[in-house]
Write a structure and sequence with these properties.
93 residues; Immunoglobulin-like; three-stranded antiparallel β-sheet; 0% helix
Length: 93
């Protein structure tokens, strides 16, 4: 499953991080923060009407905040009824 290309992060002021990543140009992403588990989830999935990911990747970014000196980030990739959650990243201050 190739819904996530490259990824990385940059530190921002006030214990925040800018997460940068690339996804196919026929995909979209949504974000969710689980306050109980303290996990930021970035979900990538195909746009409606698409059946296969494009080979052309576009840059995206999302800002996350650290909680108790750490930022937990999961990438959830959904394709044709299958879901994988990887990579899982933990950034500590």
């Amino acid at each position: 499953m190739a819904l996530l290309g490259t990824f990385g992060f940059d530190s921002l002021p006030d214990d925040e991080f800018d997460v940068t990543f690339t996804i196919p140009n026929n995909c979209n992403f949504t974000t969710h923060y689980d306050a109980t588990k303290k996990i930021n989830t970035i979900t990538v999935q195909l746009n409606s009407g698409q059946s296969q990911p494009s080979g052309v990747f576009v840059p995206c970014n999302h800002t996350v905040s650290a909680d108790n000196n750490a930022a937990n980030i999961n990438f959830e990739q959904k394709l044709n009824g299958s879901t994988i959650t990887k990579p899982k990243i933990v950034i500590t201050l």
